[in-house]
Fold diguanylate cyclase.
Amino acid sequence: MNLKNRILSLAAGLMIVASIATWTAYQQLSDNLIERWGKQVAEIQVHYDSARLLQSLEREIALARQMARSQALLALARTPDGPLIKAAAIGEMESFRNNFRDHSYFVAFLSNGHYYYNNTSNDYQGQQFRYTLDPNEPDDAWFYRLIDEGRDFHLNVNPDTNLGVTKLWIDVLMRNKENVIVGMVGTGLNLDDFLKDIVDTDQQGITTLFVDMNGAIQLYRDRNYIDFATIIKPEGQKSTIDLLFDSADDKRQILDMLTSLKDTSHTVESRFVTVNGRKHLAGAAFLPAIGWYEVTLIDLSTLLPKTHLWPLIAVFSASLLITLAAFHLVVQFRILSPVLRLGAAVNQVRRGNFDLPPLAKPGNEIGLLAADFEEMTRTLKHSRDELEHKIAERTTDLHSLARVDSLTGLCNRRSLDEILDVEIQRASRQNAGFGVMWLDIDNFKAINDSLGHQTGDEVLCQAALWIQCSLRPYDQPGRWGGDEFMVVLSPCDHNVLRFLSERLRQTVERESANGNLPITVSVGAYLCQPGDSAKTILHEADQALYQAKACGRNTVVIANKDHQIPG
Ligand SMILES: Nc1nc2c(ncn2[C@@H]2O[C@H](COP(=O)(O)OP(=O)(O)OP(=O)(O)O)[C@@H](O)[C@H]2O)c(=O)[nH]1
């Protein structure tokens, strides 16, 4: 994996880790906030629902209590058979009926079981005495149970099979002056209207219910769960609030919470529970005025659905991608691209090419490195150029030294070989001949022997100077070895060859005669033809020189392949 991919993978990994950590923290924070918010909502909702119920019932309860204290009714309890008393009592009942919200009432007397009732539409005018309660009749058991319990006030959701209605009954005991229970009065509220008003509201995600002291459900939007006629049901057959919850833990928690509310001064308590597989917050309050609990179930996922978080997740994801893209651009332009170009420049320098393209220099350590590298390359290039220049100079010097005779300063034998090759090729190319002179100092050995080697060297140097003086500027003389010299004449023809050979011989003879050591030279010359090889040329010139020596020295012989012409 290259550096770019590694950096990006590392960055992406770090961002993902950071994102997961942030997301986890966010989830916990939001759960915490939702929980606190939910508890406050539950508290407010509990207060609100309780207030609504009590507001609906308070006036009816007060009226029922007032009715229970009615002297006319107490008189009828004392004297059930007095027609006037009865008429006065029924008049009183009807008066209360007009004041009750439901325009209905009931009055039941303990002594004779007489049950009076009239409804909203006044169906029982003149027939308010409806029937006689029977202690052995299950449908009438509620009356005798309430009397037994001695609870002055009781709310009861109960169908009345005799009357054919299901109502929320407000039951208040009648007591005489001696505080002895003589009967019961009350009114009913139409259960459907009541459920619709109080618990079956359209608030999405909020469920309101009321349960009695034992947890039996009294008001709930689903009538199937309502525990009708709770008062007469044995424990275990009641439809209690714990039926709404899935887990045993939740059932126990809720019942504990209700108990705690009644026993302590807490006005509202809340717990998290699961209803139909969904997490709910259950808030509850005890209503001492009616002896019921108000319970509110808040479905948090409906009130605050997770889909509300999608924009947040989208913003979070977009931020993550934008950050990654920005990071990629920064890494690309500020680090990777300059590093790659620097790497290419290093390779180029390694291959010996110092002419670098301009390097990217971001304002960071890589930029400084690139600038230093450029500076280093410039210094290297300068050093290399200087070195190459010196090497070229030395090579030229060596080349010259290798081709110069150190004693006389003329070309040496190696150089003469090269000159001869160049001229042979040129002659073939241009189909033109050139001249070669081979000359040898006569009796040189005797000079060495008689005057010493040093003098011999001086004679050689002097002879070299005289040879150069007698030639044209572009002729090329050289020392072949010992006391032998060669001259390459180009351009040249027969006359030029003869003329220059003779002039050279005469110059040496004349000039040396002016000194104190006269010398002469023998010259063998050859006019080279196109196509002649070096071997042929040297052979011909050597033969001519040999003849010049043979002819008595201080002589010029021009060789001819066919005939030699002595000078
Ligand atoms: N001083 C000196 N002598 C050299 C040098 N090279 C060769 N010699 C001598 O030159 C002499 C050449 O003699 P030869 O060419 O053989 O004979 P010569 O005496 O010139 O006689 P001919 O050529 O027949 O006229 C030898 O004695 C060599 O030792 C040199 O560099 N310096």
Summary: The longest strand covers residues 165-175.
